[in-house]
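User: Fold this one for me? It's Octanoyltransferase.
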Amino acid sequence: MTPGAKRRFFSLCPGRLPYGAALTLQEELVQRRRRGEDDVLILLEHPPVVTLGRSGREGGLRLAAADYARSGIELVHSGRGGDVTYHGPGQLIGYPILDLSVLGRDLHRYLRLLEAVLIETLAAFGVTGERIAGRTGVWVGGAKIASIGIAVRHWISYHGFALNVADDREGFATIVPCGLPGVALTSLEGEVGRTVSRAAVTEVLIDAFSLHFASEHAGLYDPTHPEKTVLA
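Assistant: Here's what I get for Octanoyltransferase.
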């Protein structure tokens, strides 16, 4: 970015993508960001997968590895922060590829901004999200609705957050979410009592991201042909 230029980011929405393919995409975009390309917010959905973050322990798994495979759930050790979590259809996953130098390389500030984006998104649907001291993520009435687990390479962020849009109690039942026995889980649809369009949540979240990161949404990003990036 040239000195004095307004900050901007592009969004990339590849639909449903396996966890490994999404990680490869993130790693490519981290390298592109290092070479001076713009920030990118990836918003997608994963097929069923359980990931163990850097502080994850296999005691957080309620099934044997073979049972996860038989259930159609991939089991992956991840380089993100955090414990054990589940991703699957019905979640909106966000992977911001951002140069954190503009935030003073302050990881705590970055985490609080991600929480603010999620809280702002929920508010647009009439749901009051909140923080719980000492527990990263977003909660509604004591039940967790969004998880956050980040990683940083050369002060460029990857991995990110997962917002429960629809209920998937079967997937979460296979783990101890975030390593917290007895933690209650909820979803946006569960809170509002109706079906919510994933596209609508995506649109609201992009606006909230632009607001809290003081960065202009510059449009849709094509990672294979960045010169063909188009305005939203």
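One thing worth pointing out: The radius of gyration is 17 Å.
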